[in-house]
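Homework-ish question, so no full write-ups if that breaks the rules, but can someone show me the predicted structure for this set?
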Amino acid sequence: MPEAQALPDTRERILIEASRLLSINGYHGTTTRDIAAAVGISQPSLFFHFTNKLAIVQELYEHDIVPAVAGLENLVVGPGDPAAKLYAMIVGEFGRIADSPYDMRAHISFEALNHPDLAGFRDLVNQFDDLTRLLIRSGQESGQFVHGNAWLAQQMVSGFLVRANLFASSDQVERQINPREGAALVLRSLLIDPETIEQVEERAEELLPRYRSP
Amino acid sequence: MPEAQALPDTRERILIEASRLLSINGYHGTTTRDIAAAVGISQPSLFFHFTNKLAIVQELYEHDIVPAVAGLENLVVGPGDPAAKLYAMIVGEFGRIADSPYDMRAHISFEALNHPDLAGFRDLVNQFDDLTRLLIRSGQESGQFVHGNAWLAQQMVSGFLVRANLFASSDQVERQINPREGAALVLRSLLIDPETIEQVEERAEELLPRYRSP
DNA sequence: GTCTATAACCGGATAGAC
DNA sequence: GTCTATCCGGTTATAGAC
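A: Not a homework solution, just the prediction itself:
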C-alpha cells in the first residue's frame, strides 16, 4: 500500500512552478533562477532534472498540446455532426486545462514557440487551429452553421479558449469557467437555428469521451 | 508644399520595427540589437532617440491602448443601446488596429505589462475589459442579450479581438479581417433575438464616429 | 540530489569620436 | 545623428565537492 504522499517529487514541482511562471512572464522573461527559487532549490540543481531550460518547456508543451490535438483529431474523424463535435471540443478543452496540474493557460505564451527546437509543437498548435476550422467549415457546408469567413470564426473560438483560461482564477467566483456555458456561447454565434442548442448539447455529451481519452 | 517623403524618420522606423518584433518575440525576447538591426542602425544609436528600451514600449502602448479606452469610454457614456455600442466597439477596434502604422497585434504581448513602470497601461487594459463587461451586463439587464456569466462573454470578445489581430496577415485573403463580419459574429452569440442584427448594425454605424474620434 | 563556485555569454546602457 | 569601443549586471550551464 502506498503511503500518503507529501510533496510531489522535485522534478514534478519544477514543472508546476515553471508552468506558473512561464504563463505570467513568458519564456524569455522567466529565468532558471526564478524557477529554482520557486521550487526551493539552487539554480544549478535544475540541471540535474532537465538537460536545459528548453527541456522544461518541451515537456510542458508535450503534456498540453499533444493530447489536445489527439482528442480533437479523434473527434473529427469519428461520428457526429459538426456542431456537437465543436461543442464537445470546447467543453473538453476547458475541462482539460482546468484539470491539468500545470498552469498551461496561454499555451505558455506563444512567444516561446518561435524557438527552432519547438517547431514541432508550433506545427501541432497550427494543426489544432486547422482542425477547428475544418469543423466550422463542415458545419457551414452541412447547413448547420451560418456561412461566413471560417478563419474569423475559428479565431473567435481559439482566442476565447486561450483568454478565458489565461484569466481564469479560482479566487473569483465570477471567473470560474463553466465549460458548457462557454461552449454554448460559441455555438449560439454559429448555429443557424440557436433553438437547436439543447439537442446539440445532448449529442455532444456522448462525444465528450472521444475527446478526453483518444 | 511638402516633398514626396522617402522613408519615415529614424525614430518612427524604430517604433515600427520594434512593434513588429515585440509582437512576435515579446518584450524579453526582443533585444535592442534586434531592433537596431531591423532599422539598420547600430545598437547604441537607439539611445539617441529613446532613453531606454522600456521607453519604446511605453510609446507604443500610449499609441495603442489610450485611444482604445478613450473611444470605448466615449461610447459607453453616450446615447445608444448596448448591442449597437458593442458592435461599434468591435468594428472600431478591428479598424483601429488595422490602420495603425504599428504592429500592435497582441497589445504587444501582455508579458511586458508586468513591468512595474507599465502599471498605468496595465490598468488601462483592465479598464477596457471592465467597460466591455459593463456593456455586456447592460445588454443583459435591458433584455437585449441572453443572460449568463458576463465575464465569460467578455473574454470571448477580448480574446477574439487580440487573436484575430495577432494572426491576421494581409498576404492571405482568408485572413483579412472584415470588421463588420467580426462584430456580427460576436453579436449573434449574445442577442436574444439574432434576427434584430440588421437593426443593431444600422444603429452602430451612427455610433462609430464616437469610438473613432472621442 | 543538492550544493558552491565559476565559466562563458549576452543584453542594456554609457563614453566619446566623427 | 550615428558610429566604435566598452562596461557591467544578469543568465545559462558546467565542474566538482558533499
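Now go work out the reasoning yourself. Hint: The radius of gyration of chain B is 19 Å.
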